[in-house]
Design brief:
ligase; Rossmann fold; GMP Synthetase, Chain A, domain 3; 25% strand; AMP-dep_synth/lig_dom; 3 domains; alpha/beta; Phenylacetate-coenzyme A ligase; single chain; ANL_N_sf; seven-stranded mixed sheet; globular; 11 helices; four-stranded antiparallel sheet; ligase activity
């Protein structure tokens, strides 16, 4: 979409949004004439959306609403999201083009949360739209603990597993505990689809090594639905006809140079039930202007939450960087990091008895990343208890950073 087309789409969304009392009080009365005009529109924060929930940002009549969702409320009061049938159709049809290539007749096991969450429903609808059969396994219920997920994968000849990337590691671990080989004993499984947390190159390689199949990613949030998805080449492309994505500096004053990392701010380009206008996502991202074989001209990297970025001096360590460090270790599946004064302390579950952290490896990682590192290998079950199979893999969200025992400021 050209810049002039984007500006025209933004003005249509602004006109649509003025039907909301919240937006009417903060948007210009007329159309924006330039990008400078657009950048004068104040940001919306998650706290704004939280305060306006459940109805304050709705821009359509009540009888036009078709579906309601909420955030998990792990960090405060829930954030509401409403969708019309038009919104859902737009998402479903676009999402069905995900690079994984959902096919008629295949079987997709969805192990995302369903209760009030969005991603499970969107993947479910997209797979069915493409003609696939869906197994709605959910992820926060005792009905389908990980051993049953493993059993369903085998008994139903599942071809695609859709789940959090950490959950995909846990499913493999559970299969191995049952004496199965993830690469050998699930012959019909052809792909894994991830969402809900950043998928770094290191985590993607780990999953593809464990399972022996390609892994596809997408990016979105409760408030917006999906905003980007992998093509067949497994590159994450933004939905440029549906969202304007600004990547701003740490002060949120101006866009960073192309290829640099900043905070992602999004604006809806279609008249959704609850459009987002200059919404601070809280995510760190990087946009690469590189043509892809699929025809897209931009690739997006979502590197983790800004609030979860660890700063050691002037150096940021986001989830991508932390996982790049872990990927060099002999054990890589389950880890947690604590910021210390002048460095990082990793606790990693030992995968094999012979795994050791050699001093030369630690020195090389310190030289590469410019900070002091310590790594402690601990017994399996230290970070994720395997004794209760029903509880294993049931936590609401992955936790990688331990600030409670930190000796350094966040």
């Amino acid at each position: 979409m050209s810049a002039s087309s984007q500006l025209a789409a933004i003005n249509q969304v602004l006109e649509h949004a003025r039907s909301s009392d919240f937006y009417r009080g903060r948007l210009p009365e007329g159309p924006v004439q330039s990008w400078d005009d657009f950048r004068r529109i104040p940001f919306i924060t998650k706290e704004d959306v939280r305060r306006q929930s459940p109805h304050g940002l709705v821009c359509v009549p009540g009888d036009a609403l078709s579906q309601y969702h909420e955030s998990s409320a792990t960090t405060g009061e829930p954030v509401s999201a409403w969708y019309t049938n038009r919104d859902l159709s737009e998402i479903r049809e676009r999402f069905a083009q995900w690079g994984v290539g959902f096919r008629g007749g295949e079987r997709v096991l969805v192990r995302f949360p369903y209760a009030l969450s969005t991603i499970g429903h969107f993947v479910h609808a997209a797979a069915q739209h493409a003609g696939a059969c869906v197994i709605p396994a959910d992820s926060r219920t005792t009905v389908t603990p990980l051993p049953r997920v493993v059993e369903l994968l085998r008994r139903l000849d599942i071809t695609v597993l859709a789940t959090l990337s950490l959950s995909a590691v846990m499913v493999a671990e559970t299969a191995e505990m049952a004496g199965l080989d993830p690469r050998r004993d699930f012959p019909r499984l052809r792909a894994i689809c991830c969402a809900g947390e950043p998928l770094s190159p290191s985590r993607r390689r780990l999953l593809e090594e464990i399972w022996g199949i390609p892994v596809y990613d997408n990016y979105g949030m409760t408030e917006t639905g999906p905003q980007a998805m992998d093509c067949q080449a497994r590159r994450l492309h933004p939905w440029q006809d549906q969202f304007l994505m600004e990547i701003l500096d740490d002060r949120l004053e101006q866009e960073v140079a192309p290829g640099e990392t900043g905070e992602l701010v999004v604006t809806s380009l279609t008249p959704r039930a609850m459009p987002m206008i200059r919404y601070q996502t809280g995510d760190r991202g990087r946009r690469l202007e590189e043509p892809c074989a699929c025809g897209e001209d931009a690739t997006l990297e979502i590197r983790g939450r800004a609030a979860d970025t660890v700063w050691i001096g002037e150096r940021p360590f986001d989830q991508w960087t932390l996982e790049a460090i872990v990927s060099e270790l002999p054990s890589r599946r389950f880890w947690r990091v604590t910021p210390t004064k002048g460095g990082l302390r990793f606790v990693v579950e030992r995968e094999r008895d012979e795994d050791r952290i050699e001093p030369d490896l630690l020195w090389r990682l310190e030289q590469t990343h410019g900070t002091r590192l310590s790594v402690e290998l601990v017994p399996k079950g230290t970070l994720y208890d395997r004794r209760e199979q029903i509880a294993f893999g049931m936590s609401a969200k992955p936790i990688y950073i331990d600030r409670e025992h930190s000796g350094a400021p966040g």
